[in-house]
Structure formats: structure tokens, C-alpha cells
Amino acid sequence: MFDFLNSGQYDVLGAFWVTVQLTLYSAAGSLIWGVALAGMRVSPVPLMRSFGTAYVNIVRNTPLTLLVLGCSLGLDQTLGITLAGGTSKEIGFRLAILGLIAYTGTFVCEALRSGINTVPVGQAEAARALGLSFFQVLTLIVLPQAVRAVIAPLANVLIALTKNTTVAATIGVAEAALLMKEMLENESDAIFAVFAVFALGFVLLTLPTGLLLGWVSKRVAVKR
């Protein structure tokens, strides 16, 4: 049933390695962009609050497939923005990461904003009374506590991101979903076996992440 794995025709591990790379790069970028958006959402500057709110509400409710396709068709094919150039596969890989960051950053932002709301207002007021700027209050007082409070929600965002990397197949990125599609076309007599292999692969990627970050969440939880 699983003879196709030994044929040497399909690089299953290589495809999942591309998925892992997409996840790691996108997770790092999403965390940075999500923190920036969260800062805008709670900023005392009305223009920044308005931009953050509009961006989150619009992008979060836009299908991820449209965003990834928009990065490919709009940036690469229309505007000629290739993000440092390279082969078509390298450009597609980077554009897929950009689309995933733009989308996932909104969920990171909302998770962090919920964590910020758990920090007592008195702590921020006391910090401002000591002469700290808004940026200092946010980075030194509020965010460290907020992040500790939302490890579990951020773990869910990371798991969703891992599964969302399959959308990169729409622009030809050679990750697990694209290989699965090829295998389903070529191995029509082993469809259930192909599904089982890729389902197991994604379980092995997401389950340890959830368990590890769940344990971390309990260890670093803020005692109130």
C-alpha cells in the first residue's frame, strides 16, 4: 500500500521541510508584525489606532488564498517586486511568507491585545507617573505580562499557521500540499494511503507544538 514511498519519485521529507520553513519564517514575521499592530491598536495616537483597527478588520476577514495570490499576481507579476530576486520557486516562497505574515499577524495582534487587557490599568498609570513614555510602558511593563498571559492562544495561532501553509501551493511553492496533490493524481490506487501519510505528517508537526506551548503557558502564567 505504501510502495510509493520507496519508489524515490516523491520527496515527502523535503516537502515537509519546506512546510516547516514556511511556518518558522512566517511565525517570526507574524510575531513582529502582530506586536506592531497591537501597539497601534492601543496607541494614544488616533491615526495609528485607526490604521491598526482598519488593517486588522479588513485583512483578518479576507481569505488567505486571495492574499497569497495577491502577493504573487500583484507584487511579482504586475509590479515586478521579486523580494531580492532569484528563481521563480524562491520568489514564490518569499511571497508566500509575506502573505502568511500579513494574514497571521492580525491574529497575533488580537491575541496580544486580549493579553494587554488583562494587565491592571494601575500598572500603566504608575509607570506613566514615573515619567516613562508610552513605548517604554508598552515594552517594559505591559507586553511582558501580556505575552505570558496569551501563550496558549498564540500556540493556537501557530498551529493554524502550520496548516495554513498549504495555501502556498496555489502559487507553486513545493510544500506538502502541492506534493500531496501530485501524488493523488499519480497514485490513484493508494489515495487513502497518501492521505494517511500527509495527515500523520501534519499531526507530527502540530501536536508537539500544542503540547509544548501548553506546558510553557502553565509554567509562565502570571499569578494574580
TrEMBL record:
Protein's membrane topology: Multi-pass membrane protein
SUPFAM superfamilies linked: MetI-like
A UniProt-annotated Pfam family: BPD_transp_1
UniProt cross-references to NCBIfam families, sorted A to Z: HEQRo_perm_3TM
Entry's family note: Belongs to the binding-protein-dependent transport system permease family. HisMQ subfamily.
Domain ABC transmembrane type-1: 16-213
Source taxonomy: Bacteria, Bacillati, Actinomycetota, Actinomycetes, Kitasatosporales
Record protein name field: Amino acid ABC transporter permease
The keyword Membrane is annotated on this UniProt entry: yes
UniProt keywords, alphabetically: Amino-acid transport, Cell membrane, Membrane, Transmembrane, Transmembrane helix, Transport
Residue spans crossing the bilayer: 20-43, 64-85, 91-109, 130-151, 190-216
Chief localization: membrane
PANTHER family: AMINO-ACID ABC TRANSPORTER PERMEASE PROTEIN YHDX-RELATED, MEMBRANE COMPONENT OF AMINO ACID ABC TRANSPORTER
Xref: InterPro entries: AA_ABC_transptr_permease_3TM (IPR010065), ArtM/GltK/GlnP/TcyL/YhdX-like (IPR043429), MetI-like (IPR000515), MetI-like_sf (IPR035906)
Subcellular location: Cell membrane
